Amino acid sequence: MKSANAIAIPKQYKILLGLLALVSFICLLLSTHRYGAGIAPDPVRYISTARNIIAGMGVTSYDGTPFVTHPPVYPALLALVSLFTGADPLVFAHILNALIFSVIVYLGGLLIFRCLSSFPTLALLGTVAIACSRPLFSISGWAFSEPLFICFVLLSLLFSHSYLAKNDIPSLLLLSLSVTLATLTRYPGVTLMLWGALIILIYHPGHILKKIQHLALFSLLTAFPLLLWLTRSYLLTGTLAGPRRPSALTLFDNLSNVFTTSLYWYIPRTITEKPIFFLLISAGFCLFIGLSLKQNWQGIKIRLQQLTPVILFIIIYIAFLVISSTIVGYDHIRDRLLSPIYVPLTLILLVLADAFVDSYRRRISNRVVNSLLAIGMAIWLLYPISSSAIKAVKLNSNGRGFTSKAWVESKTVKYLNEHRTLISECTFYTNGTDIAYLLADLPSKTSPVATEYYSSVTVNTISSLKGMWPKENNVCLIWFDKINRNYLFTVDQLQKIANIEPIALLEDGAIYTIARKE
Prior knowledge:
It contains 26 helices and five strands. The protein is mainly alpha-helical.
């Protein structure tokens, strides 16, 4: 284990990784420079929290509530960069995430080269796969915290290599720091705390007392900062991470989402949706694996043992996502949530492919087999490269989320910005408080909620709101047609409890006056 982890990466390969990282940065920057980073509800909270930190208003969101639904590192980083550059977080978010994406490519390349040092060509092609991967390229185009989280995940995996090779306190401190930053970037980072504890217990070669000492230090350094943050959240809101409600998704739904999402990373959807092609490819792949396992089981077993920390992380992370998403309603498991396992999973597939062909190297020729494997990998790369290229063109042409061309040119947003006197005359309700804040600098309240977010739990009924909403006088309702938040009551439903009269009916929304029905 030590020899595998102690392998030094030659300088020329590090230079190649740096060049790939630079190309990745430029490609993503060119894709997002016109419309900026994609903005969704979560990024609105990150950006507004960063702005409020800079303004001395504390760690609060755009609606004035304490920022607790996510950990603080990403908005704090946005605020820090804003303080140094003097630019608004919304303006440079796409530059920051392009830089983070390039770091992901570099760190992922280091991890792959460490495990495929005997086959640098395959390692380089694997790094290209990271640079042009659809999930990583896609989420890095948004102002999400996942890219930063993935950086800390990769650092944790790399530092675990150093720790397993040295088993000393400095390497343990680096591992602890990367895990701590991950947990303070995304709550699923708690999986790294469990993963790190198991790494220490399983792989530390010292006696039991030494293991306990290292485990205690790791646990203290990683758990204490998160405990402080959760304590602050509980004291301010009475919840550890904001209100959470039961999920409407089943265990089967989540397992299916994990399988299909990860499958589309490597196999085009057009193939998987055609049963005959899918069965033929699956049968050929299974046959190849079966023959390879039969001929080279010992070699594959050794390689898998070296990858046990990576495999362990994937298992723990997926188990956390599936279980938590089945219990708590927060989101579907798709590219965004599953993306942290892309690099580790790709690494495992590359190492398995390299191990599978070992027996053929002995029978045929090392050079011939390596060339065929590299050619096969290069052919497969056409799929992620083309997918990411199409995504890049769409990003450059239309943008995405609330900063996309469609939202920038929104008639409803334009009306709000041109009729600023409404702001002083009305108390606003809307189905898009985040959009009103981001695009119109308009404080507003959420229109009545029917069910919990991503849950079937009923919050209000129309009859319970009758005579109760709205409580204020001089109320206006902004309704954005472009968004479908089906946990809110519709305008038609609200007309049963309020007198709603249009101020402006527009192509993509409307503004109404509202008066409570007694």
